[in-house]
Amino acid sequence: MAESAPRKVDMEKLVSLCRRRGFIFPSSEIYGGLSSCWDYGPLGVELKRNIKQAWWRAVVQERDDMVGLDASILMHPQTWEASGHLGGFVDPLVECKSCHLRWRSDDLKGDKCPSCGGELTEPRLFNLMFKTFIGPVEEEASVVYLRPETAQGMFVNFENVLNTTRKRLPFGIAQIGKAFRNEVTTGNFIFRCREFEQMEIEFFVKPETDKQWFDYWLEERLNWYVKLGIKRENLRLRQHTKEELAHYARECYDIDYLYPMGWAELEGIANRGDFDLVQHAKSSGKSLVYYDEETKEHVVPYIIEPSAGVDRTALALLCDAYDEDVAEGEKRVLLHLHPALAPIKVAVLPLSRKEPLAPLAKEIYADLRQQWMVNYDDAQSIGRRYRRQDEIGTPFCVTIDFQSLEDKQVTIRERDSLKQIRVPIESLKKTLAAKLGGEDLFVLPPGGSVWKE
Ligand code: GAP
Questions:
Q1: Nearest CA to ligand 1 atom 18
Q2: What are the residues facing 63 on neighbouring strands?
Q3: Nearest C-alpha neighbor of 341 from the set 366, 387, 384, 372
Q4: I need a labelling partner for 165 at 20 to 30 A (CA). Which of 142, 179, 201, 424 fits?
Q5: How far is the CA of 393 from the centre of ligand 1 (A)?
Q6: What is the pTM assigned to this prediction?
């Protein structure tokens, strides 16, 4: 694989930019924050919405073999017994006998506490699921769990989806939603959170076709990140060793991204075989099988599961997009975000905030806002305003100057190339629409598929 270009971003710079510009704040910050929980600010929420929209479009809207679902976060507790999460979703933990900090024993190098050098207890298994109670009484019988993955909602609805959509194999269910894990190893900003969002596909196939569909989804999913603009050299596929495989998986690959702290998982793609449908059929007493009209046989489908994280995608996109250069004679920080992902698509910048420019600029702003997220900024010099937009990844600035009053034209300035073009106000929307992408919003770079290394 090609050597990666030196990175201009470290986590500290990124956290600071996200905090300063309103992408991401520590959760409940006025109370000192809550460990590994984050709030997405005005720009972060737009970035996340755009990521989810791009994913939904690629895996549901543009396909005829996929349907969506939005299952409840709280599920019947039997779900987690059947899925193996009650017994198996555990981390081995040791506790320091002096300072009482807890550590994952498989993360430790030596046999002493990394913080104070104290003696450690024997490892104890710690379940990662958050427990709560349903109803007014806090007793064992009313315990429920916050889901640690969205996947189970799709398995338990397999029959419902099959019966209501009349889909034939192969077909998939897609879901975006919150998941919760009481993670022990935390840190690295939004990489590992206790509350996060997943974008998961459960793709049901005939058992003998599992290998073919597994390869298909590896390629499809890797290509998706490249289409979003992530540099190919910062992505890799890594196969799980036998020891690493989750209890349900026959085979698994991670799509890793080269984050500032090193290579780490962005998405996992697993062949779950028939584990989940068999387990839920056993546990519920319902028959979760598929009748194959061609062979006249009942089969338990195998499941291929591409499971991505919204937060880790946001982090990868921000790291990849971050750049520093010199523009218009000044140092600038910029985010080369794909226009479809940029939180703000266009900024409207009148050269002066006075009459008669302001009314014209505001009219243009109101018109563009019907179609896109648009910023209006009339504070400080035009250079400062361009810098502010570059730093949040706004692909286009529209400048209204005094000449605009005469010739009814405005200037569009491009974030990446710094090119400026003058266009008639009446065709501004059309020009921007063409630049912001129409039908083929996300395309692979020349060369097509990027999977084979
Ligand atoms: N249903 C399979 C499953 O949940 P996983 O590898 O544990 O598999 C899938 O999680 C994806 O969810 C990961 O690749 C990552 O993007 C995201 N994810 C998992 N744990 C996370 C956490 N604590 N914080 C942020 N994202 C997380």
A1: 309
A2: none
A3: 372
A4: 179
A5: 27
A6: 0.92
User: Residues 192-223: pLDDT tens digits?
Assistant: 999 999 999 999 999 999 999 999 999 999 99
Residue type, 329: G
Q: What number of CA atoms fall less than 13 Å from residue 99's CA on the CB side?
A: 10
Q: Which of 307, 311, 313, 315 has most ligand 1 atoms within 8 Å of its beta carbon, as the pocket-test mutant? A: 307
- How far apart CA 379 and CA 144 sit, in angstroms, is 51
| 58 CA → ligand 1 middle, Å | 20
Going along 250-380, which residue ranges are E strands? 251-259, 262-273, 290-292, 297-299, 302-309, 322-327, 330-335, 346-350, 374-376
For residue 173 the two structure tokens come to: 């269910």
N-terminal to C-terminal alpha carbon distance within the chain = 7
Q: Which of 51, 198, 267, 271, when mutated, tests ligand 1's pocket best, judged by the most ligand atoms within 8 Å of its CB?
A: 198
pLDDT digits 0-9 by tens, 337-393: 999 999 999 999 999 988 889 999 999 999 999 999 999 999 999 999 999 999 999
At residue 440 the predicted structure's pLDDT band, cuts being 50, 70 and 90, is low
Q: What are the tokens at 431?
A: 């020009």
Cα(131) to centroid of ligand 1, in Å?
19
